[in-house]
Structures are given as structure tokens and as C-alpha cells.
# Entry
Amino acid sequence: MNRENYDFSEYKPSEYEKYRIMRSDRKNMSFSYFNNEVQFSGANEMMIEVDYGKEDFSMYDLIKEAEANDQQYAESENDREARLAELDEEKDLIDKMTEKYGLDHFDIDQEISEFYEEHPKEPRQALNNIFSGNNIKLKVGEGILDFIYADFRTPLKESIALFGAFEEYAKEIHEESQSEPAEIIKEKISNEDQLILEDYYDYTFNFFKVRDVAYASLYSAICPPLIGRNAGSNVTLLKQYGSYLLNLQKEYLEIVEFCFDEDFYPELFSGLSPGERYALYRNIHGLPSRIERNEILRISNRMSGSEGPYGMNANAFAGKIASNLERDPAIYKDFAERYGIAETRVKRFLVMPRFLSTFYEFGSVVDILELELSKMFESNIRFRKCKRCGKYFIMKGNYNTSYCDRVAEGQTRTCQELAAIDNYKQKTADNEAIRLYTKYYKRYHARVKVRQIKENDFALWKREAMVKRDLCIDGNLDIKEFEEWMEGSFPNRKSSSAYSLDN
# Structure
């Protein structure tokens, strides 16, 4: 259908169309640039491999080919100092995010080391995105929680203020100079490699502008936007990006409440699984009942389990390699000649065992949120709202608790620990034996300070008083007997030696 033949001036999009528009790319901004992978295990864990193909060392060959005829760039002393400062900043950020998310950057460190060993004249550059190439292990559900409780507003507000000030200054300079805006010249694209490179230039040109906002959550950091170099106002771009993240954050907070909160319409949802509740949620919002996931089957020498065809234990693995090595070498030669390939290639494939593995590809925050949510439904993972901080947390097995294990803002203890302290205080406040013990402890301790009671005598008394207190709490000592004993422990207030354990 040729849409140019129609007048869409009175077209009214459906609610689902509006929903898709909210989640889709903006003008000059794509939300799916990275090609990340994630695998799920039977232990309800997810292992994410972050794309590292959008870094200088990964794009090296394409960049050098494109710049072959350009004048060679010589690094000035100021440029060198700026580059080293970026590397220092990168290290601090990596340390911070490693502590927060448990990043495993061994593989990417190896890739980078090998690259600079092969290209010793290339100056070491900071990564465009410190999450590139990292392996990240999460419990299913943790990524969603991290996203819905991320603070996007603070860095968004700060970035808008910063770039807004720059734009006002640039506007004043432009008005003073009265110069015409530079004409935008479209780059001519002759092949796919050039298109890949142009996208990469766009990404590196603009990502730093939204980086602080992106780094506010794991999923926004590993699914960065691709923004065109001629995209216009930085403030407008920041607002568009912020709107995308904040709308998704609002949506998934609503989904978590609707599908998992035990106190959300309990009389209506009692007995329903989170998946059944989600079916109702999608129906109410005019969304289709299906969720599409990009699952991929890979055959490689990497195991994704301990049983075939996904993997095997160490002894079986070693035994299979040994068995494969016993083949007659003439077999490899005959086979290689028949298919016109090298013998080493045949041997490499047939000696090393191959396994199946399934994984999912994703590039946008939308994709990974929806994928993780669907895996939660499959594994019957539950959320519960913490009765102390009000945030949702993952229920672990059959362990029944109403408090999360996060460290509350402004606190040094988790909500579980603080709740235990509060419960103890409440329990002691309501217990007569505890009240009596506390009363007499304070009284006699005050006498120790003025030397009416010796410290050794007080220590002996305290030990026996605690035993009697616990007997009273357990119902093995009458409360009146306990009070009489406490009252008579040090009857002579003027004497410092009146108490004796023999009394």
C-alpha cells in the first residue's frame, strides 16, 4: 500500500498504537544499538554478555580502512593528558559499577590487552561504555527491580541544566556573530561497512551526553541509545530519552504491583498466578496476549549445562576428547579432500565436543524487561513489598519474610535487621521481666559509678540476674519472686560490699 496516496490528518491511533509509539525509536534516536546476549539457567539465574563491538578496538579495522587516505593524527600533550584523565575516570567508574552489579570484566580485559599487544603504537583509549564486554550474573527479577527503583530524574535534571546552559551561550554567540547555520551535508553510503561505521560515529559523538542518565540503571547502561550527530538540541534529546526511560519505569512498577503485590485486590486475585494476573493486565490495556522472544539455538564448544546435549561433567568431557583423538588420521585427510577444506579444520571440529545452548538477543531496555518478566512467570518467581521501605523484593524459596535485605537509605543495616531490632524492642517493652531487669540494672549500675557497689560484685550480680530474667520470661520463675530478688540484691545503699552470691 502506498501511504502517500492517503490523507492521515484525521487518523486516530489506537491505544495499542500509542503504547508501541511510546516504546519505539524517536526521531534521530534508536533505542536498540547494542547486540547483547542473555542465557537463563535452571537455578533462576541469568547471565548477560554485553556487546563489545561498539568500541574503538573492535572497530579498528573499519576505522583504519576509512581513514587510510586521511592525514595521520598526532596526539598533542593536551590531548594526551585528557586521554589519561579519561582512563582514570574509567577505572573509578568500573570499580563503582563492579561493586554495585558484580561485573565480570575478565574477558573484555583479555580482549583489550591482546589488541594493544598487537598494536603497540596505538595509545590506550577509554571505553565508550564501561559495561561493554562485561559478563553479568543476576537472579531472575533483580534486573527489573534495579530498573524500577533507579534514579533517572537526578542525572536527567543535572544534564538538562548543563547542556541548556551551553545552548543558551551558543545562542548568544550566534546572535552576536549573525552567522548562518552550517548546511547539513548528507553522507553518501556506498556499502554496509560504511553504514556500520557511520552509526558508530553517531554513537560515540553523542553517547557522552546521556551517559549519566544511562548509567543510573543496569539495563539502560547496557542498552544505550544511538543518537544521530545532526539530531538537534541536546536538551530536547535528553528529554526524549528521559521520557522513554521514565515511562517504562512507571509501566513496570505498575506491572509489578498488578501481578505480584499480595495486597493489590486480594479478594479478587487470591489464588491467581502472576501470569494469570498479567493476562488480565494486558487485556485491560488493549495489548495482545502474546510476548515475542528472540531465542537462538547455538552449537559450539561452550557448555550451558551439565547434561547432554547441553554439556557434561569433566570426566566425560575428557573421555570424549580422548576417544575422538584415537581416530585414524587418514579419515581426516579423505574427508577434507572430499569437501575441499583443510584437515586441521575438520580435526578441530570433530575432536572438541560440541553442545547445544539457547540464548536470547536484545538491544533495548524494552526487550530485556519483557524477557525477564516472562521468565519470572515461567519459574513462578514472586515479589513482595517490604513493610519497612515499601520497595518490592524477590521471595527466596519457602523463606517467608515481610522485609527485604536492602540497606535502607541513610541506614547501615538492612530492612530485615532493622525490623528484627524493632521487634526485639517491642517484645522487651511488653515483657514485665525485661522491664524489671532494665529498671534494676540502671539503678545498680548508677551505684557502681559512685562506688557504692564494686564492679566485680556488679558483674557477678548481672550474670545471675540475666539467668533469673530468662527463667522468668520462660515461665519458670514467678515475676514477684524475681522482683523480690532484684530488690534485695543490694539492700544497703551505703555499703559497697553488702551483696554476696551466698545470700
About this structure: The chain is about 55% helix and 10% strand. Residues 494-503 have pLDDT under 50 and may be disordered. Residues 45 and 139 are 4 Å apart (CA to CA).
